[in-house]
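[09:14] KT: can someone run the structure on this one? pasting the chain below
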Amino acid sequence: MYKVFGDMLSGNCYKIKLLMQFLGIEHEWVHIDILAGETHTEEFKQINPNARIPVIQLADGKYLWESNAILNYLAEDTLFLPQENYRKSQVLQWQFFEQYSHEPYIATARYINKYLGLPKERAAEYHAKQAGGHKALSVMEQHLAENKFFVGDTVTIADISLYAYTHVADEGGFDLSEYVNIQRWFRDFEHISGYIKMAR
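[09:31] RB: done, structure tokens below
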């Protein structure tokens, strides 16, 4: 059985929970409180020296970290990860987009606002994240105007990667009401068998 170290308030951890629910993968969830600094203990840094969640312990005792790496590991040989090389690379394309063009803006703004309470000393940083976040949302909106999901007509881990923080982007100050294709994608995604809501 897998053991997952994570916090369901984290979008990156929620990604792993979603895929495991979709695939019916049995696992033990070990809660790690990031706000209490539990990722910075010496014990935790033994399993991830980068002091971040999620981390998964595999059946053979090995550990794997970085949410999208974990998704790719778990999705291998399932319908959530295409086997054809180009489509598989498209999944990676959107996952890299999520980590470099989406998450640094949308997830960070959410963290500053929701979890830190928008402190005065980080207000400028929070407001500076808005333009980059809307740029990422616009790229997604344009793609979804012509595609049901991010890679073809069936859901993949690319959708899981992007859904996690996008559907709570309002908590980072992003108004999603004008993104009609993203809203449609939310509805389709949320009808997948096994879907569970994020702890908020």
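[09:33] KT: thanks! The longest strand covers residues 2-6.
[09:34] RB: yep, looked fine to me
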